[in-house]
Amino acid sequence: MDTIHLPQTKVEELHTICAEHNNDAGELINILHAAQGLFGYLPREVQEIIAADLRLPVSRVYGVVTFYSFFTMTPKGKYPISVCLGTACYVRGAEKVMDEFQRQLEIKVGETTSDGLFSLDCLRCVGACGLAPVVTIAGKVYGRMTPEKVRDVLSEYYMLGE
């Protein structure tokens, strides 16, 4: 496993986050949420710092990170894409939409493009079943997606990313 080097300013912010929660192990999930907001993901080094500040075994922090699907240990793209594969979206063609994102971005689910612009994931329900199939990109919801619309939607973000 590669070691990453965290910027010292962010490490100090992480210590501050832990201190603001009184280094209380009962606040672990809240601290992890804040840490993921700060770093974009929760690499091993971040988990080790949190464990030390909260006086917890790293295995407990890791267990929480891997249990909850919201947390991620891999960096996400600047524009994370999530394709809903819940029942309503699935029966209305979400799998074909997912396949088209994979084809155009040349990545698989769980991966990030080499330029760091996009990462691709799936989720179970956005709560917008009437708009199925639904895709979210960087928090923006796209309803009634079709494979034919994928290129146009991506082009919006390629223009922003340059």
Automatic annotation (TrEMBL):
Keywords recorded for this protein, A-Z: 2Fe-2S, Iron, Iron-sulfur, Metal-binding
Positions that bind [2Fe-2S] cluster: 84, 89, 125, 129
CDD domains, per the entry: TRX_Fd_NuoE (cd03064)
Record has Iron as a keyword: yes
Coiled coil: none
Pfam families, sorted: 2Fe-2S_thioredx
Highest rank taxon of the organism: Bacteria
Cofactor: binding details: Binds 1 [2Fe-2S] cluster.
InterPro entries to which the protein is assigned, alphabetical: NADP_DH_HndA-like, NuoE-like, NuoE_dom, NuoE_N, Thioredoxin-like_sf
Gene Ontology molecular function terms on file: 2 iron, 2 sulfur cluster binding; metal ion binding; oxidoreductase activity
Cofactor: [2Fe-2S] cluster
Iron-sulfur as UniProt keyword: yes
Alphabetical list of PANTHER family matching this protein: NADH-QUINONE OXIDOREDUCTASE, E SUBUNIT (PTHR43342), POTENTIAL NAD-REDUCING HYDROGENASE SUBUNIT (PTHR43342:SF2)
UniProt family annotation: Belongs to the complex I 24 kDa subunit family.
The protein's name in its UniProt record: NADH-quinone oxidoreductase subunit E/NADP-reducing hydrogenase subunit HndA
Originating organism: Parabacteroides chinchillae
